[in-house]
Amino acid sequence: MTETQPAADTAAATAPATRRALLEARDLRVEFPSRGRRARAVDGVNLAVGEGEIVALVGESGCGKTTLARTLLGLERPTSGEVRYDGAVLDHGSKALKAYRREVQLVLQDPTGSLNPRHTVYEAVAEGPRIHGLAGEREIVAEALARAGLRPPERFFLRYPHELSGGQRQRVVIAGALALNPKVLIADEPVASLDASVRGEILALMLKLRQDLGLSALVVTHDLGLAWNIADRVAVMYLGRIVESGPVEQVLTAPRHPYTQALMSVLPESPERVVLTGEPPDPTRIPGGCRFHARCQVLASGRAAEAGVDARCRSELLDVLPATPEAHVACHWARAVEPAPEGAGA
Length: 346
What we know:
Layout: H1 6-14, E1 21-34, E2 37-50, E3 54-58, H2 65-72, E4 80-85, E5 88-89, H3 94-103, E6 104-107, H4 111-114, H5 121-131, H6 137-147, H7 166-178, E7 184-188, H8 196-213, E8 216-221, H9 224-230, E9 233-238, E10 241-247, H10 248-253, H11 258-264, H12 297-301, H13 303-306, H14 310-315, E11 328-329, H15 332-337
Parallel strand pairs: 3-8, 3-9, 6-7, 7-8
Antiparallel strand pairs: 1-2, 1-4, 4-5, 9-10, 10-11
Helix pairs in contact: 1-8, 5-6, 5-7, 6-7, 7-8
């Protein structure tokens, strides 16, 4: 699907057969005040990341995926619903959050912006261990850099970010997360700012970390090609809610939701380009019925009317999808005309 296609086979080969949910969102909702109204940035989401699993969260800019990631990190408080880690509800007290962030670490999109230009590589990676008072700082930093593929690590200790390539800077950011020996990485567009030539290297590194350390990861991206290459499961988000989810090969080779089909159509090998009209609706004015219906190519083409669901698309709300591993879709038309894949749900 992209220049790093073989990684998908690696992901499948190294993925555990069964997984216990490690990080979960349960009916999560996050609202913000906006011009006298409430913007529903996350509007009912169930999501689970299992032990040793990589889940891709995909969607257009503004769909709520970054807000969801920040809430899972404890940086935003949910309006309702809950975040669970290792079976326990996330405690937003300062001491509890500090302990939680040793377990769940963020990898930011832009390594240039996330690294202090006045700090050496050593200082950047040592920041976390110092905050948490970990002993053996030098050994921790060296091991983290080595695991991130910067070897020999001592050669990078005194370098500054401007002396590194983009790929090396992203590896330093990953090393900073690894220095705390986390169990989960939340990676926000981890390769978006990198040249195509090094994207595959970073994706391969994340797969190797999963294989070597048993790390779990939630990868936030707008790039379905990236999801194909790295993820075990994918969740497609639109206007604050997950509209399709399931095993990555099942969802991306046979997408059931018109929105997923439109996202897939921009890939070079897609036989037909779907051009969505307009912009996603204002999250303070989420439309009734299916939240995608105003832009839906299936409704506009008359295919929903042929299936007898056009009125339902415009007026009947869809349920919040569960976080189970099987394929699920929130679409009146897909449920009416397509037999669900084996093991799939509504």
